[in-house]
Design goal:
The complex is a heterodimer.
Chain A lengths: L1 H28 L8 H15 L4 H29 L2 H23 L14 E3 L2 E3 L1 H23 L1 H11 L1 H6 L4 H26 L6 H16 L4 H20 L3 H4 L10 H15 L13
Antiparallel strand pairs in A: 1-2
Chain B lengths: L1 H27 L7 H17 L4 H22 L5 H21 L1 H4 L5 E2 L10 H28 L1 H11 L1 H6 L4 H27 L1 E2 L6 H14 L4 H17 L3 H4 L4 H22 L17
Antiparallel strand pairs in B: 1-2
Helix pairs in contact in B: 1-6, 1-9, 1-10, 1-11, 2-3, 2-4, 2-9, 3-9, 6-7, 7-9, 10-11, 10-13
Classes of the chains: A mainly alpha, B mainly alpha.
């Protein structure tokens, strides 16, 4: 059972960092960015590129996050602003296209084999019967720290107030003299930066491949939707709940129900998020902590 | 050379049926179905699985159509409670679920290897004659699909669908049953896609989970957007152009020296750039949709 706990903490942290960014963009722009998870992949690869150029892991990671954050603002200004003018449907198709373009470019540059970051081999620590590596402990601590920091920034700073104002009512924020363009820029930098952190942490823990982001797409969207669109706390709680559900479903011996010993194939892991999503939509369409869902 | 051209023609026609189906959903009704490939897969696997048990192909097509139609109707109902962008993600999840089942239920679907040696069509003929006969058959099927799609688009029902796309609240207030209209268009499109899938499995005599990747749906989206969202003729035009482009880039390694992996990346990149370019520069596509005024003809 401790295994489930460790698994939940690690995977939940990765999903939470991404789901929070997705929900922030959704809150401020009313648009679901399918390409969001690709920022995680880009983060992983920029760390690979920078460590390959001879920089240390920590410096490469920090620079990688900064690079991805800047790239996100550039993409928003050049691409998404234009797509959004043609309506949310075109923007959604466009974000899918961008995701494909990013993945294809990375495949062209790095091939489809996974890349590894130069991290020292670590011995797992026995934690009440479950193995956990020091880098996994760091992963969870960094994620939780960043999520707490984000919550503090949104709650107590003037920037946070501005972000929340734009999310609550863009027109009202405009007429009260807020610089909406600047707020949106910062939201893009923040959420892409968090996504890049998540991608780098995941690459340190295992490896980075072109599918890194895409494999997280469904759980991340499930967490953001289940948490309630635009709700940061909801997204975080849903992310860990989802990771826990995934882990439990694979651990439980379903033999008690179908007879014999029967474990679900690991390949079905992504299906858990989907099932959770459908149950949630059927019984509580506004999400854990969300307001009523926009229909249309 | 003739065989190659016929092969591309067959592929283009198969994709065109798929594009007509997706255009009814995305272009006409505004339902962003990112899981189109699931319907194709249901059709293809139905034909392939039943064929491996020596059931005649027509039964496979019927079973596929019924299953896909039911799946389409269910997905359409899901659209009742879901904001449209999140519905799109749910359809993507559903398609991935279908792919996971195909990948993991080895005994049933052949697992990662897929099902090969599906009986072909017109098997008694020489190669060229067979390709020609197959081409003729699929063109007839495409013709029927085109007429159905055009009739739906231009009839009273099509006007309701366009109204749902443009202004769902108005459609509801005019006492149109929005949910029922969505469910019906999803079921119809799913049946079209399943026929296309069944035909595809028979033509290449193979179906595997590798063909159910989200990129397959993305390719069809590119066709519909390039052709012109909402335009029935545009869907066919887009399908032909993109098939020629995507199939033509198979030979990229003859021109430039890259690894197979990189060549695959280039092929995907070309399609992605074409789609992004059209969305940014010519959103209405090559054959723009003509929305008639309500009382233009009377």
């Amino acid at each position: 059972m401790v295994e489930v706990l460790v698994d939940t903490a690690v995977r939940g942290s990765i999903i939470a960092l991404l789901a929070v960014g997705l929900t922030l963009i959704q809150g401020t722009l009313r648009f679901a960015n399918v390409a969001h998870v690709e920022f995680a992949t880009l983060g992983g690869y920029s760390a690979v590129a920078l460590t390959g150029a001879g920089l240390g892991l920590l410096l490469s990671s920090a620079l990688g996050v900064a690079l991805v954050a800047v790239l996100a603002v550039v993409l928003y200004r050049l691409l998404f602003r234009r797509l959004l003018r043609s309506g949310p449907m075109i923007a959604l198709i466009g974000s899918l296209a961008l995701a494909i373009v990013i993945r294809a470019t990375l495949q062209l540059l790095y091939g489809s084999r996974p890349r590894y970051l130069p991290t020292p081999l670590e011995r797992g620590i026995d934690f009440h019967g479950a193995l956990i590596t020091p880098s996994q402990i760091r992963l969870v601590c960094i994620s939780l720290g960043l999520l707490a920091l984000l919550a503090l920034v949104l709650k107590f700073t003037s920037l946070g107030r501005a972000v929340r104002a734009v999310a609550a009512n863009p027109e009202l924020a405009d007429v009260s003299g807020l610089n909406r363009g600047r707020v949106v820029d910062i939201v893009w930098m923040l959420s892409a930066g968090l996504a890049a952190v998540s991608g780098i942490l995941l690459s340190i823990d295992s490896a980075v491949g072109i599918e890194l982001g895409f494999n997280l797409l469904l759980p991340v969207f499930a967490a953001a939707i289940v948490g309630g669109l635009g709700s940061i706390a909801g997204a975080v709680i849903a992310a860990y709940a989802l990771a826990c559900a995934e882990s439990l479903v694979l651990q439980i011996d379903w033999g008690a129900i179908v007879g014999g010993t029967h474990h679900l194939e690991v390949g079905y892991r992504p299906a858990v998020g989907f099932a959770l999503l459908v149950v949630m939509l059927a019984f509580r369409p506004q999400g854990l902590m969300g307001r009523a869902v926009r229909r249309g | 050379m003739v065989e190659y051209l016929l092969g591309v023609g067959i592929l283009a026609a198969v994709y065109a049926i798929n594009a007509l189906s997706l255009n009814l959903q995305v272009g006409v009704t505004g339902l962003l179905n990112f899981g189109q490939v699931a319907f194709v897969g249901i059709g293809a696997y139905s034909v392939a699985i039943l064929d491996s048990h020596d059931v005649p192909w027509i039964v496979g097509f019927l079973v596929g159509a019924v299953l896909a139609g039911a799946a389409g109707a269910l997905v359409g109902r899901l659209g009742r409670t879901l904001a449209s962008d999140y519905w799109a993600i749910a359809t993507l999840a559903l398609a991935e679920l279908v792919r996971l089942v195909a990948l993991n239920q080895d005994g049933f679907t052949g697992g990662a290897q897929g099902l090969s040696a599906v009986s072909g069509i017109w098997t008694g003929m020489s190669t060229t004659a067979r390709e020609a006969a197959t081409f003729a058959t699929i063109v007839v099927v495409l013709g029927i699909a085109y007429l159905v799609a055009r009739r739906v688009r231009n009839g009273q029902y099509g006007r309701v669908l366009v109204l749902i796309r443009e202004n769902p609240d108005l459609a509801a207030s005019l006492r149109h049953n929005v949910v029922s209209a969505k469910v019906r268009v999803m079921a119809l499109s799913a049946v079209m896609a399943s026929v296309c899938g069944g035909f595809y499995a028979m033509y290449i005599s193979f179906i595997g989970p590798g063909q159910l990747l989200p990129f397959a749906t993305f390719l069809i989206f590119t066709m519909v957007v390039v052709g012109g969202l909402g335009n029935t003729t545009g869907a066919v035009v887009g399908a032909v152009l993109i098939t020629v482009l995507y199939d033509g880039t198979r030979f990229v390694r003859d021109w430039i020296d890259v690894s197979a992996d990189q060549a695959a990346g280039i092929r995907i990149l070309v399609i992605g750039v074409v789609l992004l370019g059209f969305l940014l520069v010519r959103t209405e596509g090559l054959v723009p949709e003509k929305v008639k005024a309500a009382h233009a003809r009377r």
